[in-house]
Design a protein that fits this description.
Elements: H1 2-24, H2 30-33, H3 39-46, H4 50-55, E1 58-62, H5 68-81, E2 85-88, H6 93-106, E3 112-115, H7 134-137, H8 143-159, E4 164-165, H9 190-206, E5 210-211, E6 213-216, H10 237-244, H11 246-253, E7 258-261, H12 281-291, E8 297-300, H13 306-309, H14 316-324, E9 329-330, H15 335-347, H16 353-369, H17 383-387, H18 390-403, E10 405-408, E11 422-427, H19 434-440, E12 446-451, H20 457-467, E13 472-478, H21 492-502, E14 507-512, E15 529-532, H22 538-548
Parallel strand pairs: 1-2, 1-9, 2-3, 3-4, 4-5, 6-7, 7-8, 11-12, 11-13, 13-14, 14-15
Antiparallel strand pairs: 10-15
Helix pairs in contact: 3-16, 5-6, 8-9, 8-18, 9-11, 12-14, 14-15, 18-22, 19-22, 20-21
Length: 574
């Protein structure tokens, strides 16, 4: 009897372990889900006419900051055309969740809701958390932190009733003057870009979110904004294969669910004059789908952008994007017109029935994977609190701490001497910064100074004379713009002031701006210590103070080359 009892207990333990393993087993990825038949997809597909099938490929623009008339116009499009999804832009979280609930009621097949959330929903919505920009993340050495960020972003999206993020950006930003990618990239090292992008999207996908690597085959070395005109990528096929495409190949091999196509003229891949890559079948189908064997969702970049409509107006671009092989046609100028024109192209046998059906089913399979086959309305209760939860804020601080990069100086140069006469100067602002407030707590004899972007030469001269009377000077350089460009919008006099101040024997400078701005400040390298913080956030200002006061050992490495003095991978240490 004792033996039987023992055997029973042993069997029970095995069963319980198997149940536990099953509970915690990873949900299959979207790509894996495409390998077997899906009865829900087949059932929904069979009930649709051709027009409704085409509509499933269209994702239209939605906002909650443009008023009732705009919201109603989107509702009418959903009701009349039964499009496949929406892409939300600016607005507020509660308004958006409420509007998603309204819009889903109008859809016979649940809508797939997407957003560009490269640094989380804060990229678009007020009252929510923004994670660091991708270039800031590019400095981090622990990619597990970026995976955790992906999980938190997935939670936010799903909590709001969204299923797809048009991110991460996996462009290699090897052009400091890139006007459209720049700080949105993890940097100029293709291996770092690939590793960071994979960590980020895996965190999101493991959290149940569809993701999209962009902008294939690589938008990092352009000097034209595709929102305004068609950029030219004049490089050889060999260069594109070895550099630009590398992170996308790695992402595909790692199981990413979606890839967004860039609007670029790439003669090495398609010689058709002024043809955006989005509309090129040799690029979309020939390279991405056939050569790289990508089975997931191929998403066009916004079809309303000037790079496309300049050369292919009146809906012609939508048809070309469809025939090129895009599965999701994003932000058509006129989806009703586009659906009609695509119907005509199908009737003329410009695409095989099998290919068309497979694409529609791919979109439906994405809806199934995201749980829309059992759609539930988004709860508005405690929504704002849930989106601003303590663990998310804590992770923002951890990411910031891990990104701060000491590019010049050491513990001695940082001069943590509390009793010396100390000036704490913030430039580019009109009021006291978090950096000043936090640093002032550590120094008994301190004075705070703020200097605007356009301070007069006379004021700057007087201030420089005043600061020479201090034993140590701490400076923060701040970019308050929404889009931190490669050059600061300071006057030449203010930039010269920074150079003069850097030459002061005991000056420590922290840059809360795009890393490339350091190249725009000749003479800054003369300072005793230089800390690169990549962007102006409260969390990064606290991180810099931790480094200065030796509470934090800076582990960040430069994700881009700034000039000959400061190159990719550079880091200092206390």
């Amino acid at each position: 009897m004792r033996f039987i009892n023992h055997q029973f207990k042993f069997s029970l333990i095995i069963i319980l372990n198997l149940v536990a393993l099953n509970v915690f087993a990873q949900k299959e990825t979207y790509i894996q889900s495409l390998d077997h038949q899906n009865h829900w997809v087949d059932s929904v597909f069979k009930k649709m006419g051709r027009k409704k099938k085409i509509a499933q490929l269209f994702f239209v623009r939605a906002h909650t900051n443009l008023g009732q008339a705009y919201e109603d116009s989107v509702a009418k499009v959903i009701e009349d055309e039964q499009v496949g999804g929406l892409v939300f832009f600016q607005g507020g979280p509660v308004r958006q969740a409420s509007l998603i609930n309204r819009y889903q009621k109008l859809a016979k097949v649940p809508l797939l809701i997407a957003m560009d959330g490269e640094w989380g929903i804060g990229m678009r919505l007020d009252s929510t958390i923004s994670y660091p920009y991708q270039m800031t993340l590019g400095a981090i050495q622990d990619n597990n932190l970026i995976y955790k960020m992906g999980q938190q972003v997935a939670y936010d999206f799903k909590r709001l009733g969204m299923q797809m993020n048009f991110g991460p950006d996996m462009d290699v930003n090897n052009n400091p003057n890139n006007p459209v990618i720049n700080y949105r990239s993890f940097g100029d090292n293709k291996y770092n870009v690939a590793a960071k992008g994979i960590a980020y999207f895996k965190g999101m996908q493991d959290g149940g979110l569809l993701t999209t690597a962009k902008h294939f085959p690589g938008h990092g070395d352009t000097n034209t904004d595709s929102h305004l005109d068609l950029p030219l990528l004049p490089f050889t096929r060999q260069r594109l294969d070895s550099l630009e495409e590398y992170p996308f190949r790695e992402a595909i091999n790692a199981g990413i669910s979606g890839v967004m196509i860039a609007h670029m003229d790439i003669p090495a891949l398609d010689t058709t004059k002024n043809l955006p890559s989005t509309l090129s079948r040799p690029i979309v189908t020939g390279i991405l789908k056939d050569s790289l064997r990508f089975k997931g969702l191929v998403v066009s970049d916004a079809m309303e952008m000037k790079a496309v409509i300049k050369y292919f107006p009146d809906g012609e671009a939508d048809v070309k994007a469809f025939l090129a092989g895009n599965d999701i046609i994003e932000l058509s100028e006129n989806s009703k017109r586009a659906i009609k024109k695509i119907r005509k192209a199908i009737r003329k046998d410009k695409i095989s029935k099998e290919e068309f059906n497979a694409r529609v089913k791919k979109v439906l399979a994405a809806k199934y994977w995201a749980g829309l086959n059992e759609y539930q309305e988004t709860s508005l209760t405690h929504l704002t609190e849930d989106l601003n939860r303590p663990e998310a804020n804590s992770l923002v601080q951890q990411l910031s701490d891990a990104a701060v990069t000491l590019v010049k100086g050491n513990a001695f140069a940082l001069q943590m001497i509390p009793l010396l006469k100390t000036a704490i100067v913030s430039i580019g602002v009109t009021q006291t910064t978090v950096f000043q407030q936090e640093l002032a707590k550590w120094y008994t004899y301190n004075n705070l100074f703020t200097i605007g972007k356009n301070t007069s030469p006379a004021e700057l001269k007087n201030l420089l004379a005043t600061l020479k009377g201090y034993d140590q000077v701490y400076v923060s350089i701040n970019d308050t713009r929404i889009r931190p460009a490669s050059k600061l919008d300071y006057t030449s006099d203010v930039k010269q002031f920074i150079s003069d101040l850097a030459a002061h024997n005991n000056t420590v400078i922290s840059v809360f701006a795009n890393a490339y701005t350091i190249a725009d400040l000749p003479g800054i390298e003369k300072c005793a210590a230089l800390i690169t913080c990549y962007q102006m956030t409260d969390a990064l200002q606290r991180s810099a103070v931790k480094v200065i006061t030796r509470q934090l050992n800076p582990t960040g490495r430069l994700p881009v080359s700034i000039n000959k003095d400061f190159t990719t991978g550079m880091r200092g240490s206390l």
